[in-house]
Amino acid sequence: MCSIYWMNMDFSNLPCRLACSVLALGVGVAAAAAAATPVPVYGYDIVHAYPHDTQAFTEGLFYLNGFLYESTGLEGHSSIRKERLESGQVLQQIQVPAQYFGEGIVNWKDHLIALTWKAQMGFVYDLASFRLQSQFSYPGEGWGLTQNGRWIIMSDGTSELRYLDPQTLQETGRLQVTYQGTPLRYLNELEWVKGEIYANVWQTNRIVRIDPDSGKVVGVINLNGLLRRSDEVEGQTDVLNGIAYDPKGDRLFVTGKNWPKLFEIRLHPQRTPADSPR
Fold it and tell me: Please, which pLDDT band fits residue 273 given cuts at 50, 70 and 90?
């Protein structure tokens, strides 16, 4: 017996092979229509530019209670910092042990959770004192972190986002991220913004907006030209990476590795065809 329903249509009276062919055709048409639907592209206006430490190889960033928290990478140079937004002044800092390459960070209640790149090791600190409280392990690489009030969300450089239990920090599931039906790799620093996951796409000037239910990219933010060439330092200025959001003030902040500035930006629709994030 073959009973197949698709789009509220009953094919149960058709021979099974024919019904499956009809279903496959319908799915193919639906997939083609979805792929043909352009993904909105957003440009930006700079609201304000703030100082940023050019020695900070930015890996993680979030905003909380009036302050920025930033993690930096590279073995022997990784750190976690609490900073004053307006001046870039570092108010509090700890060095990550020299053998680790620091990656994404996120707050959870009175904790600060931090990843490392290839060591398969993460750390939990007291948010107020930066005192190390515990550590945890995970398979594969660690890249970015954010949270949605229920889960910790982690990137690992692939097209999948991991959901972690915030109490145990053990993986509970994964979300496949796709751009027009194709898996999108190199998802890096993350931020939860108004019910969407924002993710830097490594080695590009793009941030993608991800539907957390479907994993589909529902918007691409084009940040070409954000940092002027005159502000770049040869051999030092690296790629865009770092997203923070202030929900109370509805302010979006972005920066990059070793950038001299951190920008508050406002998004607007871009009047050009859809631009691939890859």
Answer: low
